[in-house]
Amino acid sequence: MIPTSSTNYVRSVGIPCVALDDVLEITDCIIVNEQRSNIKDLKKLERDTRSFELIYTYYVDQYVAEIYHPELARFKDIHKGKRCFIIGNGPSMRIEDLNTLREHNEICFGFNKIYRIFNQTKWRPNYFCMTDLRVMLESRNELIKNDYGIDAENCFWMDGLYGFLPYGNYIHMITEPFAPNLPRRSPDITKGVYNGCTVVYEFGINIAIYMGFTEIYLVGVDCSWTGKLTDECNHFIKDNFYESEKSKWEGINPPTTDVMLAYEEAEMYSRKSGFRIYNATRGGKLEVFERVNFDELF
C-alpha cells in the first residue's frame, strides 16, 4: 500500500505500512487506494521500468453500468500474434507507402479525415476511428454521402454522439486530465478508453492492444506540428481542412506535451506486456518508440 492521506488511519487499525522504496525491488503488484492527484511522486512511480503492476482501486468500475459496451468484446484477441500499421496523417506519409501496405495485405488503422485521400489510392484502412467531436461533425455528411469502401462494422466512434452515423461501434471516452502524470491505461475497451489527447493513442494503440497484435507500427505519426494546426504543412492530405472549416480551429494548438506523455505510457506498457510498438515514420519528432525503416519491413 502506498502511504497517502489515509496512512495514519491505516496504521491506527494495525495494517503494516512501509516505505515504497523499501519494497519496489521485490514487488509484483502495487495497490493504490487514493486518487492519482493526491499521490506524491506518482509520475516517477508510473515511469519506473521495473515490472510491477499498478492497480488503482479508487477507480474500480465506478461508472461501468453507464459506459459498458459489451458488444466490443468480439474484438478481443481477433488478431492475436499478428502485426498492424497505425497510419497517422502527418506530412511524412506517402501515397506510395499506402499502396505498399495494400499490396502486402497489411492490417491498418486510419483516422479522422484520411478518407479525403481515397481519391488518390485504392488503399483503405481495415479499421477507421474518430474521437474528436469537431472532426466528427465536419465529416458526418461526407461519410454518409460517399461509399468509401470502408467496412462499416469496423469503424469506431467516441460515444459522445450516439447515432452520429448509422453504423460502426461506439467506445466510451473517459476524459479525465492526466498531465503532468502519465494517462491511465485502457486494458478493456468495453469499459472505455482514457484520454490521451490523440486518437492514435486513445483508439489506435488501445484497440490494437485489445485485438492482440504483438507488433504495432506507427507510420506518418510525425508529431512535428508548426504554425497553425490547420496549416497544410502539418498534414499529408492537401484538403485535410477545407477553407470553410479552418475558422472553427482558430487558437487550437496541438497538445504536444500531453501527446508525448500518452505515447510514453504506451511504450512502457508494451515493454512490460510482451508486445512492441515501433515508429516507422519517415522523419518527424517522435522519439519515444524504437525506430525502424519502413521499407525494410517488406
Structural notes for this entry:
- The chain has 298 residues and is an alpha/beta fold.
- It contains 8 helices and 12 strands.
- The protein has 2 domains: 7-59, no CATH class; 64-297, no CATH class.
- The protein is 24% helix and 15% strand.
- It is globular and about 65 Å long.
Summary, kept brief:
The chain has two domains: 7-59, no CATH class; 64-297, no CATH class.
**Rg over alpha carbons:** 20 Å
Helix content: 10-25%
Reported for the largest beta sheet, the result is: 8 strands, parallel
| Total count of strands | 12
Helix count, DSSP H or I runs of 4 or more residues = 8
Whole-number tally of structural domains: 2
Mean pLDDT reading: 87
Strand order of the largest sheet: 7-6-5-4-3-10-11-12
Outline, from the CA principal axes? globular
What is the CA–CA distance across the termini?
Answer: 48 Å
Strand coverage percent: 5-15%
Class by SSE composition: alpha/beta
Order of helices and strands: HEHEHEHEEHEEEEHEHHEE
Runs in which pLDDT lies below 50 for 5 or more consecutive residues are: 1-6
